[in-house]
Design a protein that fits this description.
alpha/beta, five-stranded parallel beta sheet, 5 strands, about 40% helix
Length: about 180
C-alpha cells in the first residue's frame, strides 16, 4: 500500500498518470492531496477515486470519525512544492498531506519526497535548511540525479515528471534487507 501525497505543483495535473504507473509497478495506491491540489481536481475527484479504488483525502478527518485510509507500506510525497517543503521542514503540519509523512517517518514507515519547483524558488535560503531537516529525520529526499533537479523559471515540463524514478526509489525503500 502506497500513500501518494501530491502538493499543488505542476505534475499534480497528471497525478492520474502517477497513479497508473504506481499500479503497474504493483502498488495499491491511496491518494492524498493538499487542499490546493484538491481544488485542481475538484470536478474530477470521482475519476481519481475510481482509479485508486479508495477515497481521495485532502483534509484531516473529524474527531471520532473512522479513518478511511488503510495502513501503508510507504509514503511518497510527489510532487513536493517549495511551499510544502518549507512548511514540512519547519514542522508545520497544517494539512493532512504534511501531517501523514511528518508522523509516518517517526513511526518507521519509509517516507520519500520528490520535489518539483524552479531554480528561483530553490534559491530561497529556507530550501536547503528544509531539505536537511527532512533528511535528518529519515526522509529520503529525491533530488539531483536520483530525483528531480529544479528547472529554470518558466521552463518546467510537468508532463515529464519522473514518476518512474520516484516509484523505483519507493520500491527499493520497502525491500527487506538481507
Amino acid at each position: 500500500m502506497l500513500y501518494l501525497i501530491a502538493c499543488a505543483a505542476g505534475p499534480t495535473e497528471y497525478i492520474d498518470d502517477g497513479v497508473r504507473i504506481a499500479q503497474a509497478k504493483g502498488w495499491d495506491v491511496c491518494l492524498i492531496l493538499t487542499p490546493s491540489a484538491a481544488r485542481w481536481w475538484e470536478s474530477r475527484l470521482d475519476e481519481l477515486e475510481d482509479l485508486t479504488g479508495h477515497p481521495v483525502r485532502s483534509r484531516y478527518k473529524l474527531p471520532g470519525t473512522r479513518d478511511s485510509l488503510p495502513k501503508c507500506d510507504a509514503m511518497l510525497v510527489a510532487p513536493l512544492s517549495c511551499t510544502s517543503l518549507n512548511k514540512w521542514g519547519a514542522g508545520i503540519t497544517d494539512t493532512l498531506a504534511l501531517g501523514l509523512p511528518s508522523e509516518g517517518v517517526h513511526m518507521g514507515i519509509p517516507v520519500l519526497a520528490m520535489p518539483y519547483f524552479n531554480q528561483a524558488q530553490a534559491a530561497q535560503p529556507a530550501v536547503p535548511r528544509s531539505i536537511a531537516a527532512l533528511r535528518q529525520q529519515g526522509v529520503l529526499y529525491l533530488d539531483g540525479e536520483t530525483g528531480y533537479e529544479p528547472h529554470p523559471p518558466r521552463h518546467g515540463d510537468a508532463s515529464r515528471f519522473p514518476w518512474e524514478r520516484a516509484l523505483d526509489a519507493a520500491a527499493q525503500a520497502t525491500r527487506p534487507t538481507t
